[in-house]
Amino acid sequence: MTVSDVVELEGHIIDSGLMERAFTVVMDLGGEFDIEEFEVGTTKTAESYCRMRVIADDEATLHPILHELHQSGATLASPTDATLTPAPADNVVPDGFYSTTNHPTDVRVDGEWVGVDNIEMDCAVVVEGVERSDDGSVGVPDRADVTAETKVLNGIDAGDLVVTGDAGIRVKPPERPRDSSGPFGFMQGGVSAERPSRSLIRDIAEAIAETKAQGGRVLCVAGPAVIHSGGGPGLARLVREGYVDAISAGNGFAVHDMERSMYGTSLGMDVETMEHPRKGHKHHIYTISEVIRAGGIEAAVEEGLITEGIMYECVTNDRDFVLAGSIRDDGPLPDTITDAVEAQNAIREQAREADLVLMLSTLLHSVAVGNCLSSTTRTVCVDINPATVTQLLDRGSAQAVGMVTDVGTFVPMLAEELLE
Amino acid sequence: MTVSDVVELEGHIIDSGLMERAFTVVMDLGGEFDIEEFEVGTTKTAESYCRMRVIADDEATLHPILHELHQSGATLASPTDATLTPAPADNVVPDGFYSTTNHPTDVRVDGEWVGVDNIEMDCAVVVEGVERSDDGSVGVPDRADVTAETKVLNGIDAGDLVVTGDAGIRVKPPERPRDSSGPFGFMQGGVSAERPSRSLIRDIAEAIAETKAQGGRVLCVAGPAVIHSGGGPGLARLVREGYVDAISAGNGFAVHDMERSMYGTSLGMDVETMEHPRKGHKHHIYTISEVIRAGGIEAAVEEGLITEGIMYECVTNDRDFVLAGSIRDDGPLPDTITDAVEAQNAIREQAREADLVLMLSTLLHSVAVGNCLSSTTRTVCVDINPATVTQLLDRGSAQAVGMVTDVGTFVPMLAEELLE
Amino acid sequence: MTVSDVVELEGHIIDSGLMERAFTVVMDLGGEFDIEEFEVGTTKTAESYCRMRVIADDEATLHPILHELHQSGATLASPTDATLTPAPADNVVPDGFYSTTNHPTDVRVDGEWVGVDNIEMDCAVVVEGVERSDDGSVGVPDRADVTAETKVLNGIDAGDLVVTGDAGIRVKPPERPRDSSGPFGFMQGGVSAERPSRSLIRDIAEAIAETKAQGGRVLCVAGPAVIHSGGGPGLARLVREGYVDAISAGNGFAVHDMERSMYGTSLGMDVETMEHPRKGHKHHIYTISEVIRAGGIEAAVEEGLITEGIMYECVTNDRDFVLAGSIRDDGPLPDTITDAVEAQNAIREQAREADLVLMLSTLLHSVAVGNCLSSTTRTVCVDINPATVTQLLDRGSAQAVGMVTDVGTFVPMLAEELLE
Amino acid sequence: MTVSDVVELEGHIIDSGLMERAFTVVMDLGGEFDIEEFEVGTTKTAESYCRMRVIADDEATLHPILHELHQSGATLASPTDATLTPAPADNVVPDGFYSTTNHPTDVRVDGEWVGVDNIEMDCAVVVEGVERSDDGSVGVPDRADVTAETKVLNGIDAGDLVVTGDAGIRVKPPERPRDSSGPFGFMQGGVSAERPSRSLIRDIAEAIAETKAQGGRVLCVAGPAVIHSGGGPGLARLVREGYVDAISAGNGFAVHDMERSMYGTSLGMDVETMEHPRKGHKHHIYTISEVIRAGGIEAAVEEGLITEGIMYECVTNDRDFVLAGSIRDDGPLPDTITDAVEAQNAIREQAREADLVLMLSTLLHSVAVGNCLSSTTRTVCVDINPATVTQLLDRGSAQAVGMVTDVGTFVPMLAEELLE
Prior knowledge:
Largest sheet of chain A: 7 strands, mixed
Helix content of chain A: 25-40%
Shape of chain A: globular
Strand order of the largest sheet of chain A: 5-12-8-11-7-6-13
GO molecular function (chains A, B, C, D): nucleotide binding; ornithine cyclodeaminase activity
Cofactor (chains A, B, C, D): NAD(+)
Largest interface: A-B, 59 and 59 residues
Number of helices of chain A: 14
Structural class of chain A: alpha/beta
Protein name (chains A, B, C, D): Ornithine cyclodeaminase
Keywords (chains A, B, C, D): Lyase, NAD, Nucleotide-binding
Number of strands of chain A: 20
Distance between the termini of chain A: 71 Å
Oligomer: homotetramer
Enzyme class (chains A, B, C, D): lyase
């Protein structure tokens, strides 16, 4: 006695790797398959179709196979509605809740597919605009009111109707572009260890310029190394000229940036810094103290305390910034959001609005932003540590490129490409 | 016309590097010196004494030299009282505030030296038990009531009497032990890349055992890699048997640990994990969700949800733990302190009570703990990334040792050394 | 006007990734395809077949596409004989020579497929046993005498018949095993950063034990860090007990190993080493000097100079070792092959005989050995630097696993697993 | 009963760290000291003097202390002549041979100090121009003929008079410059992780320019990553314009450089390279094959095969280059020195002639060159891997600076600084 179910795969399922992944999943998880139909797209633009029966010895084997196939983009041949189960309590998911990927996703409600808003990884899907009877059946008073969106655990309220099980869900991982030319072509390349650095910086500049030309929004996630390594002035120019629309950073980043403005940087001072690494840390504390006294970053800019740098450009050009607190912070600044959940929510909003995210030398903040991104958002990750770049690219963005380089040379070169 | 001042250096000032550092500081910062008296300890145990006049062209040159000499352990030959200035507002330091090192420090109040409590780097020093007139003079109603302690910026209240300037302060960097044998001898070794791993683990075990034998307290700062790499059971045993008194970690660490307890780990599952890295992330969310439902970690242990692992051992053996939140967290757990300032305060208390700190595979939490440590606290830092180990050891602890190794092999070997 | 050619793909072409790769190659290199026939294996064990016409605007576009398809495992639908062109001079390849992959390969000579012996990456293929007329036609006096084998550039003699162009060649990249269980199942896992270290060591031990049980040969490529980190005694035991059949290393490895035997290691001495890194380097030179005086490693063992360690076990148990010289070497030892070409040839022989290669903490020697390996040889690569592991695994072995760990804890744990 | 001996320290012994090191050595190695005289230089330029009796329980304890003090720059108070012992055989050192540091060194022969030529680490010192009787006494026929020089093990001939023991040797570690300003001031800085990258590149450019202005010689040690990352054209310009006088590299570096010249680099091609890392490896083999056919690099340039790049500039501008072979090499080129000992000798000559060495992205070649350098040669080490930079700087050069950056951005920026 075996159990089985039928799944379908559609699209450019061969060159996107979906077919390979489907076969692999079945075999690795101990199942068998029987290809019931396979129509291969005979030309480059034609789509393919595959209907495959998945067979396993028992439900316990079959279920995880179907789950993985799902997450990869396969759909059940005979879809049923998604099961909706009320959350038993605030911040608690019902048993068997469906945990999202970062790919565009639909859920089936009352026979129709509804797109899930604000797709983000590892969330629950909550459906609104439906009525659920005690027997689990779902009614739809007004089709137009039905919506589905992702919710993180701390956003779930008792009674929220959460999608459970794997039925009635379809996931659409982004496909490989048909054409690898154009400025975004390079974006499929993963970590580019052996590529000429300057050419790659030129490509990234082109991607940013194109995003802006199309009215898109560029979010820059930046770590304090941007300032230490001398990337501050370049990034400030990019903010001023509108190539960077928003900054997502931490308390330290902002303090270092404003300290540069408040206490200057002569070469002599740099030399001292090199020789006495602890030196000038007092400036760091002073900077925070003065900004607190002024009443925050905007006030400090307005009273003329801060006269240049990234935070200055953000304030004077009205660019959005989020400073998320961490347990390493001195101070912190009044602008720093010290509560992690509140900070995540602010980051989530930045991430959702971004069309291209430039991650510069910060693992902590880049992971936090990356967690909130859909797989369709373009991402550029720059770090001198290859392990950081690899970790960030592994999160499954379809259009992500990594560059292992020195942010202190990267930022000025990028600014030159875009501004000169 | 030149300006000058006289400083004194006392103790094992040659082999501790203090003399070298003093000479270097004067020369690098553009001064001259004139050795007025130098008595060298003629034997290993005899102390040395040096009185040196520091000469510079102007006050602007002299001042930073004196400041650096101070921070290194030199004292003014003719000490005056510390200057006390009221903080102008909450969280704001007065101009010229003295920023602490992590070395034992005294401040001179009304002619007598007062030890600074809870010494920690980059803090202000606040003196209590004195009365300050408007002319800045300080009165001492009752000598016994005079205390001094460090305060971070967010702990400062308007009106707090903060030490400003460099006068009336003396810093005592720890000296090199006279004898490098014994279990702690190795503790001076810095990063040990070329040392036999097993011997070094044995030395670390001995240091922990000795700390416990002397009634000391061991704090373990641990990252999620401890769990991923298989170090969980070993660390749980060390907690149970009392070799680790407290855990300082993040939300993810606790969740991974409890997920292991709640969902088990067969070899088959591990293989799957390896092949499908996103797999099982649902378990991660479930774990949090269930612990929230139970009402927290202690409640989850009590209701039998969690039956083994590090958090389990902490609860059942009444070991202190702090889970500090970060913007990467899922959930978070009810026990996680999401506010960064509040979390820092909890970490600060752990750090102050610790006699030996074992930092395992976490840069974020280790830096946070390290920031709160005196230079006299023994620290062992273990990470597979040499840059992390170097960064943590650079913070100036006098008795710190780093080991670049795999925490997944380190923890079981350490547990074997201590427990078998 | 377009040009086209027809290629065939056969086998488990979907889950091996061959189909995906074929589609990708055509699209990335600017071609189109037309699937003329596609029979998908409808069950896990059934093979698939695809005949695809590749279309391009001109020969200059078509040719690289066909070349890449070839290298990936596609074959021309209407194969012709391989073109054989005489090498114009010693160490010089004819124009258009075919450069090998590391996958099993056949060339077609006089209508029949001949396997290429000693397959190795980036080589030329030389055919013997044929007669070539001036018009390029090839005659086969005796079928049984026809052989083909790889030759590196410095092995090519003027007049050697070298395969040129892409015709008449078929490449068979290894397929994914149908079954991922068993000791070698894990071998598909790539770099295992998040896997429990001890479990992975257990799997590697099992793979070595199984290789030996099947009469296979284990080659260990080892760097000096094996000795520094304390892995020497463990590796020596593995050599003695026959779990390691051959050692491929450098001059420094052997010297460090023998220095340990000649000058002993007390704990006191290790501590000194840690404090004075240059200390004992004289022992290093002495060791070499004494072995030179004795007449080589074997002689030094025989005269009782060397009484333990890896080299000792190699000599007394008659295990093969190759010491390849490098420009960093002190000495060198009389046994060290200082000529790079000669050393490569010795390494090549070791590599060809190996069934499992264990690479421990050496990039230079591992790359040299890896260059000579067929894609079907099992490889385990262990290093504390993730970049090294990634670079070694990228070379395209089908059964390669990497582990980022401390070789100083890895070797003793591996020895315990195998010997206790 | 104790044993003792008297050593003297002279110069800027405090700020050079010599006093500290001397005290530390005595204490760590189990001795006692008695300071018999100590005159401290009372001003910045005045030298200090210390006479110290070192006391130990037995000769076995005393000897290593004296040895270490020696190596650090202490001299015996009552110097005797160096002991000279004939080498027992070719490539074999006599018992107790003195192993050199990389600091300037003198040996005492017949009552007078003779400078050791070609100082290099871990060598023996061979004295010529003296006659040795069987009783070990040494006669000097003509004072003017007495010379001493370092010899590596493979340069020692039977009968060479080798310095043994520690007597009659004085080592002069370079002192800290009295003044840290000027272009070379930064050269004391070690690894500069937190320094603005562009400022540091400017400093390095200035150091190169000053070296050239003073008639010095710049040696560039370069790895293949210089070419991959796009640094080739910049380095070629530096060679052409005379800022780099010599290149020390490997076979792969030269091949990659010439391949760029022979097969061009369009953007399209780069993109392909990124997508298909093995692609174009055939070009690599072709390049070697063609250069072999031409008869070598110079011939290939002359016949117009190579028309640009670093090797081209070396040939046409008559810059010295050494290509040292390794076991990873393809080919190799006819110019590559495949024998490691021969290659070391060629590298040794380059190193001795260099006044500033720029090490770019190669650990193997940088270590080989670094092994041959005196501690007084300025060294700049650039690599993206911090562990590589640290390892290279640890070799004890007095004027070494490291920069952790991307060589693909470093080289163009350096060329711009020097040439524009």
